[in-house]
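look at this stuff:

>
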Amino acid sequence: MNRRNLLKILGAGLIMPAGAVAATRRKDVMLMNRIGPSASQLYIANADGRDERPFLSGNGLDYHASFSPDGQSILFTSERNGLGQADIFRVRPDGTDVTPLISHPSVDDAAVLSPDGTRLAFVSTRNGYRANIWVMDLQTGKLRNLTGSARVQGNKAGPDCFFRPAWSPDGRWLAFSSDRNTPWRGHDNGRGWEHTQELSIYIIGADGRGFRRIAARPDYCLGSPKWSPDGRRVVFYEMLTESTWGARRPEGVASVVSQIVSVDVASGERIQHTSGPGLKVFPQFVTARIIGYHRKGGLDEGLAYTTDIAAIHRVLRSPAWSPDGRQVVYEKASFRPFAQNQPLYSWDPERDYRHTDVFPGLSRDGKLVLTEKALNSSIAIMDPDGSDRQRIFDVSRTHLNQMQVAHGMAGAFAPAWSPDGQWIAFGLGQWFQARRTGKAVVMRMRRDGSAVEPLTDGTVHSGFPSYSADGQQVVYRVWGENNMGLRILDLPTRQTRVLTTAYDNLPGWSPDGGRIVFTRRVDDENYDIFTIRPNGTGLKRLTTSGANDGHAVWTADGRIMWSSGIYGFRDEAALYDNTFQPYGQIFIMNADGSHKRILTDSLWEDSMPLYVPA
């Protein structure tokens, strides 16, 4: 429990009359979908891979560990205070005496201890929601945003965040990576929705002075810096900026190529320490002449070294070696889907947050419908707490390619209730990259799964339907060459009219029927949230950030929730797994775009929110 919520509880107790019993009111719930690991356990082993053993017990989320310079403790990030709430802990090398160092509602991650053991450097999104390098004095608790000054901060219209700090051996300098002063850019030369990341390597004095860039390469991503034992060089990984998309996707990770490079901090002299194929990340000087690193993905996944030590083939993440080079700590993560209604950390004192599968919708009589993407992208209905679950449309009984279904590229997506709760409309077909060669149609069925019928004829890729307030019309999006935008189908007449002709998607009819919210591609790099009246007038742009804004949905009281990357990445993009846009957070605003505020602040991709009353 964070300090703010604890104080609220204590304060409430102080004003209760003697003998009174506190009434426990059930909280409202926000359901949301999170793309990230569902479990992550730390392991420790010898540098040659022998004597591997679990370091800490439990099946929560522990990750991003590092040894203290004296080897007497290990720092790590943990979500043991609530899934999504990243805090920093310290533990002895034998796994005892787990002690919290940083507990705060922000993301706090990637902690490293100074050589003299008195200062902690870490990444935090506190005080502005962007990732910056902070330093804490462990004796006084005093905090300083080391990258927060005007001379260090870059263009706020771009990503502009700071990652992976590393202390110099003398404790005078910190090295880190940053995407400051870089533009937002989509993958596939700007055609892709998901963004890539360009990073350079910087150093700054522990006193905040001497900030400068020490390594950069146009159209490349340089990340995870570490110092040589003599403090003369900094080592890092280097890959094409475009490759930061494939590095976090299961279908692309094995084909990504990166190299381990170091530079002389004084002269800029560059040495490339590796060659050949493979994604190589997390480099570290294990000794003065041996560099260890992580080979991510592919047949050779595991630990590798530039010389002398044989490679270890093992699925792991974020290795860190002990100061004497004899041990290595890392995590093993699981991406098994979260359970429906899995409790998550809540940043809202008025609501409990819980996980849901994708595209949830609530009928007026309180039934939840969703796409079972964690299973086989069929459609199920249930009570909001996950009970009385029934699959009402089974994708395995359709003509869809089951291999594409298994990879989440085909299925029954985005079910939408009719206002009377008797019908469900949805899209059936191939999605994401598969839509380029596949088909999709808008379907509807009764809530018991009967009377299934197509609403579109399949000549143009159609999906993501939403009912009008009176139930007489359905808005949906079409996608195809010379045939883009939103369409409205009149159900009694089966006549279709054009609402928009731009690159628009994910339409949602407001509860009062007055407006339709949707996502529009405004240029090659950017998507924003718009609304429009059903008659085609009153087009209004609600978001204007250079980052992507999407997946907008209405609340029952007429506000809009959506996901945005406006505050930038929370870590180096190439280090993520199985994710699309790793920085997405959930926001809420009024229907006119006013009073925007953030609802989540996690390390992961959060989207598809739904408010459920208690």
